[in-house]
Amino acid sequence: MQDANDRRQIAALEARIAAAKKAHEQEAPRQVEHYSPANVAWRMVTELVAGLGIGFGIGYGLDWLFGTLPWLMVLFTLIGLAAGVQTMLRTAREIEAAARPVDGPVDGPADGPADGPPVGPADGTPPAGGSAPRGKDGTRDQNGD
Hints:
flat; mainly alpha; 0% strand
């Protein structure tokens, strides 16, 4: 008797847990990551300053060790600057790739310019729906001829 009662209580508890999990999943959908321009700017500035600082530190340490102050400090500071700029560019590419839509190009079809005139066949005939030949004065009559 006690065993059947325990099984019913466990089954009821499992059902309540499953219902609570399902309700919690429906309440809080995952949000897409969004970087504000200020966050992106601070990240890039931090990466640049970190590259400069690390380069300066390595250069100063080697100068102190070898007694060549300031040559290695200047050299490694420039290397740190280059590394910081490279990291900034990589971050910019990552953020741009994340912001790009997945299902196609942003600016229009990939087979030609979106704003230019229609392009016809290579034999020089106008494209379908394009402009018909004009008269000597450059105008068409009312029928489109």
